[in-house]
Amino acid sequence: MQRFVKHWKAERRPSLTQAFVPLSFLPGAKYQFDWSHEGVVLGGVVQTVTVAHFRLCYSRRMFVVALPRETPEMIFEAHKRACTGFGGVPLAGIYDNPKPIVTTVFTGKEREFNRRLLALMNHYLVEPIACTPAAGWEKGQVENQVGNVREWLFTPRPVFADCTALNTWLEQRCQELAQRFHPEQSDRRIAEVFAEERPLLRPLTAAFDGYFEQTVRVSSTCLVAYDRNRYSVPAEYAGKTASLRAYADHIRVVAEDRVVAEHPRNFGRGRLLFDPWHYLPVLERKPGALRDGAPFQQWELPVPVRNVLESFLTQTGGDKAFVDLLLLARPHGLESLAVACDLALEQGLATPSVMLTHLHRLSAPAPPDGLETPDRLRLSQEPRADCDRYDQLRQREAVQVG
What we know:
Layout: H1 2-12, E1 30-42, E2 45-56, E3 62-67, H2 72-86, E4 92-95, E5 102-105, E6 111-113, H3 115-124, E7 127-130, H4 140-153, E8 159-160, H5 163-177, H6 190-197, E9 212-217, E10 223-226, E11 229-232, E12 241-246, E13 250-255, E14 258-264, E15 272-273, H7 280-285, H8 289-292, H9 294-297, H10 303-313, H11 318-329, H12 334-347, H13 352-363, H14 388-401
Parallel strand pairs: 1-4, 1-8, 4-7, 11-15
Antiparallel strand pairs: 1-2, 2-3, 5-6, 9-12, 10-11, 12-13, 13-14
């Protein structure tokens, strides 16, 4: 039956194989977006990165940025960088139908876009337009760009120390490639046409706060999990529910309407990222954990503080004394504590009370500058100090008593 219907439609449909309608775009009207996966060498390791491709449809100016993942927060970061790179925002964007962008594909052009992507589009006042599935010609400019960029920029594999250095180089290369001649306006370079289009882009306002959010439960070890890694949270939130916000380069944990933890994002697997200060309330009850606790084994303490810690751990009850010192020093920070420890070690009095005294002195506010008295408030006759008056009063009192 299916073969019959296919044959019946083919007989009644005119043959339009490989026939297309040429497209023309107004300045500042639209851009096209696509992903690709490219091989690079970062920090001596061969790996695959996701590359976000943007292309202004009128001027053909392109912008590419390499990111570790093809996830919503990476899409937000890519758009923020592209808008900054172009110096403005077009009226509409043409997209494919991947899950981070389109949640559901309906008949025709009807789409259900990702909720956070719509928030991004509404922030920049951009109309998202989804292509027909398997109809790459609807965004043919960026489709061709993907192949060209792979040949021009990623063959052979580029070698850089990290992704930041790679993106700096990619942005520079995009500017250099803008010196090519425009494919339609052959007497002008892409950079010249872009200079004409740029004033017609919508000016940038505040950057979009691009994060992917999910609800998490803080474990009994004060950790929350995301993307196969775990991050520490202050001990008072153990066992409670919090909101984890994943950005392209960092993680934030929000509880009780405030940010309670923030970490640089890690893209490995099974990594533990600790902030030792999060565990101080636990140390107050269990100071022995200072010796073997995982959050404290890789704690990069300043040299004077490390010397005091090693000295304390050789004494009975030294771990509790050092924990008490940390609790007292937390409002002042490690830098002030390092200075206080250094001063105490120089004096040969490395005790909590001495270091706390130094901390208070270091954090004490500077004395106010001397005040100048206006001339109209000066005394016409300055009081004179006369100690003989005190003796006269004593003698007068003695006479009265006698």
